[in-house]
Amino acid sequence: MIRAWHLDLMMIRQRMLLNLPISLVLCLWLGLQTQSPATVVAAALFMTYPMVGMQLGQYDELKGWKSYRMTLPLSRSDIVAGRYLTLLTLVIVGLLTAAVAVGLNIGIAAVAPGLGGPAGMMAAMCSADAVHAALLVGLAFLLVCTVMVCAMTILFYRFGATTATTMLPMLGVFAVLMVALFVGSLDESVVAAWSDGLLWLLSPERLALCCGICAALTVAIMAASAAICLRIYTRTEL
User: Fold this and answer.
1) CA 162 from chain center: how many Å?
2) Which of 9, 34, 141, 166 lies at a C-alpha separation of 20 to 30 Å from 188?
3) Residue 172 has pLDDT above 80, yes or no
């Protein structure tokens, strides 16, 4: 499993080295423009986790890793477990990137409060409610991204990197962007109602419950997807 994980990391190392600085710059810009830690967290997770995770199957085909793995002393269960360990690594990297990005934005708000807009708006990023909202939105977004990534991983193991399975990740990204644009276009009354509902969830008990549910569902979806991929891969003739 560890050797398969190392092979996956070798495949995506160059992409990750490029993505991380771009993610941080994008998150800093979004933080200054939106004054919203939740937006920063969602952007950091999206750039690091699904954008790379959904392309692992394509890297297998393009670089010939699928055939190369079969020449190594690795079982198919090791290969699948290594792939999901890679996805878990991307989740951890995404969460760390989000934490660093939020910390940098809060630092900017403290040192130069007028840089991204009115001082009061940037200072709002430091509030407890803003940080709690970022945690809740981040875990909910992580759940959505896990559904996307795990579904695509199953398709790659079942059908390989065909034209359809290559295009489907782009459709997933497009759908997420459309939802974001739709939410951004809502009128003030709908946004106010959404804000009121979010504030209702931010009490410590409800926040802990919602975060626990999101985390548990994320783990369950990833485990179920790994089991399906293992079943498919062990029966696939290469």
Assistant:
1) 24
2) 141
3) no
